[in-house]
Amino acid sequence: MAKTDLMDFDKALELFEPVLGFEVHVELSTKTKMFSDAPNIFGAEPNTAITPVCLGLPGSLPVVNEQAVRYSISLGLALGCEIAESSRFARKNYFYPDLAKNYQISQYDEPIAFDGSIEVELEDGTLVTVPIERAHMEEDAGKLTHVGGSTGRIQGAEYSLVDYNRAGVPLVEIVTRPIFGAEHRAPELAKAYVSTIRDLVRALGISDARMERGNLRCDANVSLRPRGQERLGIRTETKNVNSLRSVERAVRYEIQRQAAILAKGGTIVQETRHWHEDTGTTSAGRPKSDADDYRYFPEPDLLPVVPSAELIKELRAALPEQPVAMRRRLKADWGFNDQEFRDIVNAGLLTEVLETTQQGAAAFQARKWWMGEILRIANARDVEPSSLVTPHQVSELIALVESGDLTDRLAREVLEGVIAGEGTPEEIVEARGLKVVSDDGALIAAIDEALAAQPDVLDKIRSGKVQAAGAVIGAVMKAMRGQADAARVRELVLERAGA
Amino acid sequence: MSESSTADITAEQVAHLAHLARIDLTPEELQRLTGELAQIVHAVEKVTEVATSDIPATSHPVALHNVFRPDVVGATLSTEAALAGAPEHDGSRFKVSAILGEEQ
């Protein structure tokens, strides 16, 4: 494939104004699916979490999950949307085996929520209001694995294998209106927007929002228009953007790619594009025109959803803080400086740090572990930190350090065990025998042994060369395989010397 | 909704619909279906004679709403049962022919 021409980013911004739009799919963390009582679970054996409804078997009928409706309304309210007095489902018809029915149940002309906005904070504290067009309920599709061909991708595949466990999982799709004025900060805004939605749904407790698991998926629309032109340019829709970092990179790439084409007098093809994480590029997908012929019609198997005023009032009263307000409060509560706090937000770890503190850990400890060892391992493995450990596990680890049962070094070893799936921190401490030896008797025995090997040390200490204790401390730590508190050993050695 | 009339149905529209539905039609079938579809649309068109602008659109004949189920897990199919009707499978997943195009 020929190398795609890209225009320098600053040059592209000089000539064109970028206009953004986002479609974010949020998988709701209900116990069951949108229209069936099959469990909504991740990582089960293929085709074990399905019912006749998930397979669209003849005679099966969908019934709406009440909790999914409540979650959707809460999300709509948190996005500042109007909640529809009456909302209905529609069939979106297409032929692709990710859904067995040959249609997806979605919402079309009567979405549950519409006309909202959300404030998004950029790195330097600038607030941008992103207009929300609608948030509608729909069902997720199954998962296809393409077999044969060299890349595992669709091209060249001999056949595909279908797992319907995800088919029917409740989704809310949040659609923005066109976003103007982001200019050279368009990539940054894209990341900040998705990060804000992620924080919001986590705060609402309606989704796990783990991007690496596809709980939160973003399609980014980008178009450019020449400076001074009123009419919007032709847009592309980049799919498969599954990390905060990718959202930023994909928007930047599309701006540079489109600018290069337009500057040469070319036209942008209205199409979906696929983001490739490995190469940091997008490639053409299907053209928009034909495939958009979905022939929506009202779903005859389902009745309208008419939320009562009481329900809306109840859900509105239970809304959490807006993400921007929450960030400002947390920054003050935790006492971090601008840079420290911004680093957490940029790493996409605000919710992780918050939830770790909610489990009882001190904020500086939560920050230290997430932004330190966990982020380091995640970067080395090129995965999201949240895919490695849970806030609960991190808080347990911190508690073990705080109680003196683990040193930082031992705690890092325990963390490795947690990431490797060996169990809870407590279990790993037990299984690997990593607990700090806090029994003075055992330490004194080891000190005696070390002193026997280095009999002149005590005299040196007594004559004022306190640093001589280092040799004994080193020997004791070695004998204890690092599982001793060096400060305590030092105290005991000095006591022994009568110093 | 736009006012439709039988004259609106063309062979091109039917061919397009057939393509979207992944149905191969012979020229004879296309011609016959264009006529039949026009008849059906004509029959449905009668509704517009009584449905004036002050009558709200309806999507369901039953005047019910908010029929929900609680978020409680029920019985699932066994994988064997789920795959029983599949022409091809690999023991745990449905096997389908190579797909041209991409996820929607």
TrEMBL record, chain A:
It catalyses: L-aspartyl-tRNA(Asn) + L-glutamine + ATP + H2O = L-asparaginyl-tRNA(Asn) + L-glutamate + ADP + phosphate + 2 H(+); L-glutamyl-tRNA(Gln) + L-glutamine + ATP + H2O = L-glutaminyl-tRNA(Gln) + L-glutamate + ADP + phosphate + H(+). Its EC number is 6.3.5.-. Residues 352-497 form the Asn/Gln amidotransferase domain. Gene3D superfamilies: 1.10.10.410. It is an enzyme of class 6 (ligase). Coiled coil: none annotated. GO terms for molecular function: ATP binding; glutaminyl-tRNA synthase (glutamine-hydrolyzing) activity. Heterotrimer of A, B and C subunits. Allows the formation of correctly charged Asn-tRNA(Asn) or Gln-tRNA(Gln) through the transamidation of misacylated Asp-tRNA(Asn) or Glu-tRNA(Gln) in organisms which lack either or both of asparaginyl-tRNA or glutaminyl-tRNA synthetases. The reaction takes place in the presence of glutamine and ATP through an activated phospho-Asp-tRNA(Asn) or phospho-Glu-tRNA(Gln). PANTHER family: GLUTAMYL-TRNA GLN AMIDOTRANSFERASE SUBUNIT B MITOCHONDRIAL AND PROKARYOTIC PET112-RELATED (PTHR11659), GLUTAMYL-TRNA(GLN) AMIDOTRANSFERASE SUBUNIT B, MITOCHONDRIAL (PTHR11659:SF0). This is Aspartyl/glutamyl-tRNA(Asn/Gln) amidotransferase subunit B.
Automatic annotation (TrEMBL), chain B:
GO terms for molecular function: ATP binding; glutaminyl-tRNA synthase (glutamine-hydrolyzing) activity. The gene is gatC. Keywords: ATP-binding, Ligase, Nucleotide-binding, Protein biosynthesis. It catalyses: L-glutamyl-tRNA(Gln) + L-glutamine + ATP + H2O = L-glutaminyl-tRNA(Gln) + L-glutamate + ADP + phosphate + H(+); L-aspartyl-tRNA(Asn) + L-glutamine + ATP + H2O = L-asparaginyl-tRNA(Asn) + L-glutamate + ADP + phosphate + 2 H(+). The keyword Transmembrane does not apply. Allows the formation of correctly charged Asn-tRNA(Asn) or Gln-tRNA(Gln) through the transamidation of misacylated Asp-tRNA(Asn) or Glu-tRNA(Gln) in organisms which lack either or both of asparaginyl-tRNA or glutaminyl-tRNA synthetases. The reaction takes place in the presence of glutamine and ATP through an activated phospho-Asp-tRNA(Asn) or phospho-Glu-tRNA(Gln). This is Aspartyl/glutamyl-tRNA(Asn/Gln) amidotransferase subunit C. GO terms for biological process: glutaminyl-tRNAGln biosynthesis via transamidation; regulation of translational fidelity; translation. Belongs to the GatC family. Its EC number is 6.3.5.-. HAMAP family: GatC (MF_00122). Heterotrimer of A, B and C subunits. InterPro entries: Asp/Glu-ADT_sf_sub_c, GatC.
